[in-house]
Every structure is written in C-alpha cells, then in structure tokens.
Amino acid sequence: MKLAGLSAVTIDRLVRFHDLLLRLDAAGQAYASSQAIGELLGCSPTQIRKDLAKLGRFGTRGSGYRVEEVRRTLGKIIGREERWDIVLIGAGNLGTALLRHGGIRERGFRFVAVFDADPRKIGTKLESFVVRDISDLAGVLDELSVEIGVLAVPATEARWAARLLMENGIKAIMNFAPMSLWEEGDVVVSNVDLTTEFEKLCFRMLTAQGSRAQHLVRDSASARSPVSS
227, exposed or middle or buried, with CB in 10 Å at 0-12, 13-18, 19+? Predict the structure, then answer.
C-alpha cells in the first residue's frame, strides 16, 4: 500500500488504526474483528475491511485479524518502525513542553538539536540540550541526518524559520505557530494551531447543543399538539 495520493482522512485513520493495534497488542489480544475495530475507531467495519484489503491478505474467518501481524505491516507502511531525528526551532514554553513529551520519544521521534534567535536563550540549557543560535542551523544540519523540523515560534517568525529549514534540506515541517504555512516543492507541512483546535471544539459543542435544543423544541411542540381523530 502506498501512502502517496491518500487523503488526509485516510492517513489519519491509518495512524489511529495503528495506535489502536499497539494498545490491543500490549494488552495481549491476539485477534480483533472488523466490527470491534470499527467500533473503537468510530468507523464502519466495511471501511476497516477496505483498508486492510489494501495492506495485504489478513484475517481468519471466525477469528478476525491477527493484531500483531497487522500492526507490524501497518507500522512499516506509515514509517512507525523507523527512528526519526528532529530539530526544534523555538526554545520557549511550547518548545520546552515538546521536549518533555515522553510520548514523542516512545513513538520513535528524537530531538537532536534546539535553536532560537533570542540572544537571551542562546547558550542556555533546555532539558538535555544547549540552545543553539539559529544562524548555526545550516552548519548543524550539514552534520546531522535530519529530515524533520518543528516550529514552536511566534507567528511573525514562522515563515522566515520555515524558509530557513527548507533551504537547508528539511523535508517535513510540523508548525505550531498560530499561522498556516503552505507546502512548497517536496516539503510537506503539518499545521497544528492549538487555538484553532479549541475554536473548532467549541463550534462542534455548540452545534451539538443546538441540535439537541431543536429536538427538544420539536418534541415539546409535538406533545402539545392535539391528536386528530
């Protein structure tokens, strides 16, 4: 199965699928049905079967899918079996939180250098790193085999920092700055705006509350309406 050309929704589902398989495998569950997997992921059993059919031949009639086998195959496809080195731009509060996030390391992602443009932060210790001057980025990347860069900088510095990463061979950027960056050439970008995520969450909550309120109004109106004979 090739990831090129897959929609963002499909890729998101495959990554969540692998996370689920990791948990099932760790719990000692040997088999799982498409029905059970679909319920846990919030999608239909048919969709699960379609996804797995693209991965290869899996499943035993009456038993379901072998969790370990599917986990290993899917892990190789999405790159989870590899180890990825990362450079971090931004030594502020968000950058510090990312360095301390144990789950990132557990999934095979390793920070190897931290950079900042603030003279007050350059040369200081942050976790196990000494913060480097952003002007040294090119030289450091020449020495390291790094393809992923993470931006934890203010919006005003995001485009400049992203351009610097691209010009020095970075192929993937995770952008936490509160502004969207666009993909250029063969560089892929993932924009993660926490403020926007909160706004989307509130919108979904209000939409759900509005839908429930409309149902209550209709039910109340129906209850008051006289029954015609």
Answer: exposed
